[in-house]
């Protein structure tokens, strides 16, 4: 069974996720923890549940999703995985982080690159890597087919979609990829977004004002 624990961190109210199997094998996804209190909250959960964090994944590399990358790599001695198209975004964070008040931001380089269609192991479980650009050029999502759970980053939110006015954003591409990559998943699939509450495919196909049925009425 795959378990997913969410945390909400940093001033952007970003959702950080730990995904782990019944044996405690875990991956950390989009660590937004940027201060000692947030890092302690995440670490305490790992320790109290005796999790063994093996890998660090980024859905994409905007600042709010990577603030804890360097800390997590060092604390858990784990490699960072991103899509290769996210390299420029990841490198740019070090340049603009002070503009957002993150004077002590520490950069972290990727160790490996995620491949579209790849099965990424989480102990006895596995995610399928889906490519959903538009919010960011190399944005990926992690879909657990057995339980119909999807960690979707900033692609699809409850009643909204990821913004596309940032560098590398593309509104038509995001709409098309949501329809072809996410809306083709089973309707009961739970979407764990990068911000805000979880949702599901059935609800968004009807009610989402950007890509749902109501968008075309």
From TrEMBL:
Query: Which residues belong to any copy of the Metallo-beta-lactamase domain?
Result: 13-195
- Which co-factors does it depend on? Zn(2+)
User: What molecular functions are annotated in GO for this chain?
Assistant: hydrolase activity; metal ion binding
Q: Which UniProt keywords apply?
A: Hydrolase, Metal-binding, Zinc
Q: Where are the transmembrane segments?
A: none
- SMART domains this protein is in? Lactamase_B
Q: Please report the name of this protein according to its UniProt entry.
A: Glyoxylase, beta-lactamase superfamily II
* Protein species of origin: Algoriphagus boritolerans DSM 17298 = JCM 18970
